């Protein structure tokens, strides 16, 4: 069983659709790498076989608009690859048709997603509701899978973190970052590996031989989430919140390293690693130390988790207090914040 952690729905002030600038920078920073992986590593003739329809899935699409940008880049790169493969320019009359499946949990705001579909899109759009930790599509039906800023979401909170008697009880913190207790980190790693075992087993069934899967995972804002934890502890110290509620709250995210990703891919054995690297990307928000915008972006995908655990009143106050810490966060970023980085991986189905 997986737990759903949807982004803020709709198009309001704190909605994900209006506050996903960080994710857009990640997509833009990886655009050339995705294109390069398609041009150098995808064999259109092999994966198309007798069909003339290329089926693509966006895993963890959320509500837009970033997913549409990603899909347009991929469609254009696959068209170019088709037209110029083998250095023979083909007729544009026989370009494959494109079918795109936008996947996310059933609680995702698909209404906002599909209302904002680009009118001039060059593909047929479909929804694929469900957790990407399990099967979503028929066997050997997907030619290209893309997953940006989503693979770090776990299917659930590691159970060890919910047991007060466990060595992994994460007292006073909401994440593994900053935890002095190695058992906390180990619990997150173990859950990530279990989830990826299910993920790769499902994708191995769904992706055609020679098909490609691309991951883009952020590593750049992992340390900033602790400021939401400090706001919750402020409420504890003021007597407005029970400390045990904070101790039992942990963010269901693990940001994999190249070593983590290599381990789970090799354990599955069905995919070859064609490209994998840490890439440092330029960020207008980080370079200009725009802490307020960054924290509002984080609010757009953390607020639902906070509401689910603490209720809407405490969640609203914790988010508001964190955003008010912009000057403190800016000062911290100027001293401590590393250059934004992403993990990029392109895998091919054997």
Fold topology:
Blueprint: H1 21-41, H2 44-48, E1 53-59, H3 66-84, E2 97-104, H4 110-115, E3 124-129, E4 142-148, H5 182-206, E5 207-218, H6 226-237, H7 243-247, H8 258-268, E6 271-280, H9 284-287, H10 291-310, H11 312-324, H12 326-336, E7 341-349
Parallel strand pairs: 1-2, 1-4, 2-3, 4-5
Antiparallel strand pairs: 5-7, 6-7
Helix pairs in contact: 1-3, 5-8, 6-11, 10-11
> SSE order in H/E notation?
HHEHEHEEHEHHHEHHHHE
Full CATH superfamily name: Vaccinia Virus protein VP39
If you consult CATH, what is the topology? Answer: Rossmann fold
Q: What portion of residues belong to β-strands?
A: 15-25%
**What is the spatial order of strands in the main beta sheet?**
3-2-1-4-5-7-6
Radius of gyration, Cα only, in angstroms?
21 Å
Description:
InterPro entries: MeTrfase_7, MeTrfase_capping, SAM-dependent_MTases_sf. Keywords: Magnesium, Metal-binding, Methyltransferase, Transferase. The protein is of the alpha/beta class. It contains 12 helices and 7 strands. The chain is 43% helix and 17% strand. The protein has a 7-stranded mixed beta sheet with strand order 3-2-1-4-5-7-6, with helices on both faces. It is globular and about 70 Å long. The relative contact order is 0.16.
